[in-house]
Design goal:
Blueprint (H helix, E strand, L loop, with lengths): L2 H6 L4 H24 L14 E2 L3 E10 L4 E10 L14 E8 L2 E5 L2 E5 L4 E4 L5 E5 L5 E11 L2
Antiparallel strand pairs: 1-2, 2-3, 3-9, 4-7, 4-9, 5-6, 5-8
């Protein structure tokens, strides 16, 4: 909106001259955050709640762009016995899965492999995949998704 339109709305030229520096500062702050990416910080587990139920629940620790604009996400999933993450599927982004607790079967391109705690699974771009809890108790794992440049 042009300043003349704001004047008609009851904002004086004096108010407008005070508004410009504030808008400029806000724009600069937004651009600085975009340029620096996600803030360096600790994401405390006890401050991030789960969604879902005992069959499948999860929580997102972070999602955003890093300093060069590359977007990634970190989340945790807990699957009940026999539960799958989802039906086998594929997508453009890559995923690293770090199994912390329990036993899973990783399905990748038609083959299934058992995965023990402490192991890392990598699902490449556009590869059919999923996970299934293969144990008698819950399994817990972290996922790091590499999503590419932010739009």
């Amino acid at each position: 909106m042009q300043p003349e339109g704001l004047i008609r709305m009851g904002i004086s030229r004096r108010d407008w001259t005070l508004l410009i520096p504030a808008l400029t500062a806000a724009t600069a702050a937004a651009q600085e955050q975009a340029a620096t990416g996600l803030p360096s910080k600790v994401y405390h587990a006890d401050t991030i709640s789960y969604g879902g139920d005992d069959k499948k629940k999860g929580r997102r620790f972070l999602r955003g762009a890093e300093h060069s604009g590359f977007t990634f996400e970190v989340h945790e999933t807990v699957l009940g016995p026999g539960m799958e993450t989802h039906a086998p599927h594929k997508h453009e982004h890559e995923e690293f899965v770090i199994l912390v607790e329990g036993m899973v079967e990783a399905f990748l391109d038609g083959k299934t492999e058992r995965v023990e705690p402490g192991s890392v699974v990598y699902f490449g771009s556009n590869r059919m995949h999923n996970l299934r809890n293969a144990g008698a108790g819950p399994c817990r794992y972290y996922v790091i998704e590499l999503r590419g440049k932010a739009a």
